[in-house]
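Hi Q.,

Before the meeting this afternoon, I wanted you to have the magnesium ion prediction in hand. No need to reply - just skim if you have a minute. The sequence and ligand are here:
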Amino acid sequence: MGTNIIKVSHLQKFFGKNQVLRDVDFKVDEGDVTTIIGASGSGKSTLLRCINLLEKPSGGEILFHGKPITGKGFDPCGYRAKVGMCFQSFNLFNNMTVLENCMTGPVKVLKKTKEEAREKALLYLKKVGMEPYINAKPMQLSGGQKQRVAIARALAMEPEVLLFDEPTSALDPQMVGEVLSVMRQLAGEGLTMIIVTHEMAFARDVSTHVVYMADGVICEEGAPEEIFEHPKKEKTAEFLRRFSER
Amino acid sequence: MLPSDFWGRIVFILQEYGSSFASGIWTTMIIAVISTAIGCLIGFAIGIVQTIPCDREDNPVKWGLLSVVKFILTAYVEIFRGTPMMVQAMFIYYGSAMVFDINMGMWTAAFFIVSINTGAYMAETVRGGILSIDPGQTEGAMAIGMNHFQTMINVILPQALRNIMPQIGNNLIINIKDTSVLSVIGVMELFYTTKGIAGAYYTYFEAFTITMVFYFIMTFICSRILRFMEARMDGPDNYELVQTDALVLGEGMHTYTGKDKNVSTNSDYRAHKTGNFNRDQREGM
Ligand SMILES: Nc1ncnc2c1ncn2[C@@H]1O[C@H](COP(=O)(O)OP(=O)(O)OP(=O)(O)O)[C@@H](O)[C@H]1O
Ligand SMILES: [Mg+2]
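Predicted structure with the ligand bound:
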């Protein structure tokens, strides 16, 4: 296994009085593909958003290469530039073309030259199969295409870790495949990823590590075979059974 | 020498006072256009400040400072929206001379009053424009490491600007008409000029008929220009697929700025641009 990148310990998150994350511990090493599964409302999105500092943790610690990300003097923008995120609703910039979407981060945040950024953007757009669409605006694309552009935009930042929050949940069934196959390819290339998903078959083949969350805690975690074939906890088995019935 | 029929008098006034009308129109337009532009800048600046996120517990000093600034800005907006521009003109023009011993000069006063008024209206419009943008846009920008300022400049404000273009147009048209109140401090805009012309031969009806038409032409042309700008901002309705081969030649496209300012040396790129041009022409026919 590679070096440790992210270590979450005793993470807690309150929304007002409502405790959404109770005591979450887990770590991500270089090259890991961690998938987080669990029922709706169990706190999966909140966990990812805390890792990316889109939500401020209420307690506990998140270490990035050993440094606490909520510590004094820690630069959240520089951190987010290294930890990419893809959203369920894509969140592409509507005022920019596909190419501009992928260039703006490298140019404005990483201070790359336009030429350099353009080259990188084209490289990653090609990787996700969206390079013919560089002049299109997000409004003119299908959901699957938008998500692939969003992945290219995140990749153009050359992040150390890429977070995915249910990247295929907003898509029509026939578009799910194209996004998952891009992600599968990225996993094969050794990109470190944390993926929240309801696509169990995908989670099973692609991940190195599966985390099952329930009610704001990690109920069970382990290699995909362990979780999917021989879950230790009854709760996990129950969740998976309900899923396969649908 | 004054013709006895209506149209004759109109022609006579136009011949005699054409240059006065022209200078009145020029004065009106220059005040309206520049002040609307400055007002928009004020509005955007205030809109940005009003939407800076800040947590009281996170950073109490910043929070306190921001609250004071926001209070002052809100007071400005409420006061200038809540009083007539004509009264403000008198108040500021004579007040600055009396109280602060500043002789503003008519032009400075004119630009100042109209800008600051437009700013007060635009501040609320911009704030609304910013709030109307999907928060997902901000999250998308934050997720690639942009700070608040970068997010605003690159992502939120361009979209907000597009959404509030109709209101900016509205403000410009209102300003073209409302510069007429500046006559109370002696600014020689179109209304004040007309009054002088009408008084000379006692031809009020004729002179103001002409001025009505001029005002209408000015506002109508401006509203068309703004529509055109809106259409330009929207960009083309459709896009063209770029062939993979064109990308291999990517090196040659380094002059691309995203705004078509520079002509690329890449022939595929040029061909693709020309294609665009032809299509636009076809649509125009
Ligand atoms: N901004 C917020 N304010 C208040 N409560 C919130 C907020 N965001 C999430 N919650 C609550 O936190 C809980 C966990 O939400 P979260 O979005 O993390 O669940 P999830 O596991 O991602 O579910 P899903 O599979 O439906 O996406 C929910 O009960 C939700 O109502
Ligand atoms: Mg969720």
